[in-house]
Request: fold
Amino acid sequence: MKREKTIKMDNQIAHKITQALERISKTFRVLLWEESKKYQISPIQIQILIFCLTHKEEMLKISLLAKEFDLTKATISDSVRVLIKKEFLLKIPDTYDSRSYTIRLTQKGKDIAQKTSVFTASLDESIDALPDSEKGLFLSNLLHIIEQLNKKSVISIQRMCLTCNHYTKDQNTHYCSFLKKSLQNDELQIDCPEHKLPA
Reply:
């Protein structure tokens, strides 16, 4: 009976955490929507511009963007087409495959991406108010949740330490073989440019 009560309590806590994450997700959506209204483009179009600003050009293909945002190629193509029409993006044809292309920010697109990339500032400040020791643990726990969702195929591959071939963990010590150093919780990456999938 005591064990059943403990399991029920654990489930309640898990549900409360899920509800709290949903509230934070709602805040993210509201902030993004407010930003998109300023520039008369959709939230996903803002996210595409910011992604282009912060990632290498070889990642800026329709198929890779579709995986990144867990959307269909058609949805991403439509958004990209609008951004090209508004002169926020350029289409760069693939030299070896005429059907394929990458996208690149125009100066106009870069300006908007830089301005909109701080839309989460109020959320960042709220999290920054946590004690430093708790922030690292909070990040580590969130990465573990994302890893579990990835393993269940709920979300696509994430370029974070926990899913990287360079990463190992020995008890409570994180280690990156690419950087050749141990990492503290607050040094764990969620979107690493050097991410490599396990073989």
Remarks:
- The chain is about 55% helix and 10% strand.
- The radius of gyration is 20 Å.
- Residues 2-39 form the longest helix (38 residues).
- The first strand starts at residue 89 and ends at 93.
